[in-house]
Amino acid sequence: MIQVKRQNPKKSETPTCVELFAGAGGLMLGLERAGFHTLLANEVHPHPCLTLKRNFRDVPVIQASIRDLSGAALLEKAELPQKWIGNITLLAGGPPCQGFSTAGLKDKDDPRNTLIGDFIRMVRELQPRFFLMENVPGLLSLHDGKLFQNVLNEIGTLGYQFQHRVLKVSDYGVPQMRKRLIILGARDEKPPQHPEATHGDGGNMELFGSDLLPVTTCGDALGDLPPIEPGMIAESYSIQPETDYQKVMRKGAKKLFNHQASKHRPETMDYYGLVPPGGTWLDIPEKLRNGKQGVQRWPLDGLSRAITTEPSDFLHPTINRIPTVRELARMQSFPDTYEFLGQRTTGNRMRRLGYCSQTQQVGNAVPPLFAEAVGRKILEAVS
Question: Which CATH architecture has domain 9-199+367-382?
Fold first, then answer.
């Protein structure tokens, strides 16, 4: 279990945060590591809530749909006094852009019909000093951009100043090609700035003399994890960490969690073996393609594509199997002390029934390293 150094906000000036749509806690972990104290976390799915409770034992986790709660009711469920209204430093969350309401207004471009609208409503009701809304870049163009423009208009009615920007998580040391839309707002002042990149492409660094750190590659992220075969489990380390990233991920870890490899049929492993290092299913001779499309074998010297909720989208760099939950978590920058609970994987039927497996939890998460970089920039505005 990860240990986060926490302070009592009643006895200090520690900046506070309320987390909505918390998922497995990637955004929350990053913000805590930046210096925020989480007052409460809200998540509708029960299985990510198990993960949150395991890793943040002193944070009230409210399992409920935000659509069924007012800001005052949310505080009450967490047994927090109503005086926090107007005194919360940061309201943060990544509302899904799916999930239109079946009641009320039917306009698909009206943000009040979406979970994004509920996030905006909570900003209005809780009146935090700052807010952070995270989402997919595709929100910018959804419905020809009309929904996002209406989202901005709706935020504008709150009286908050705000700005938005699409950021690449690889610019902050995360080993994948993932982009996130970050909207930052402030109630009584200019909004916080977005963080500048700390990592960049090696070729450009040499060309322009940049002082950016090189990007973290898949090999940098995974090289010290036991290279287990399909069907095997490892609960301890057999390789010493070599890269700075590996050392950061393993800090404080006494046991290796979630490192269980799925079993594969021999013919499946043979098919995976047709994908070369750093390649995709397109590198398989067309006459031999008979399996899942879109799969990528992680390149040891490059970045992963954006991590998804489906582990079979990826292959281990050198072993003919899909990744373990721990390997996926490494690619998302979750430390090894962070334990994921619930069923390891789920089929389509269980997904339709609402089960949120460990692989889904990891894939849906905001990378903690990226969240920490954003959180530190917000804290600059707090002081």
Answer: 3-Layer(aba) Sandwich (3.40)
Which of 17, 49, 97, 218 is catalytic? The answer is 97
User: Catalytic residue at 49?
Assistant: no
Residues 130-153: pLDDT tens digits? 999 999 998 898 888 888 998 999
Q: How far is Cα 10 from Cα 13, in angstroms, rounded to an integer?
A: 8
Domain spanning 218-364, CATH class: alpha beta
* Annotated domain spans of the chain: 9-199+367-382, 218-364
pLDDT digits (tens, 9 = 90+) for 318-367: 999 999 999 999 999 999 999 999 999 876 555 555 668 999 999 999 99
Q: Are 275 and 281 in contact (CB under 8 A)?
A: yes
Separation between Cα atoms, residue 161 and residue 381, nearest integer Å: 13
Token readout for 10 is: 């009643």
Gap between the Cα atoms of 304 and 322, Å rounded = 13
What tokens appear for 136 in the block? 């997919």
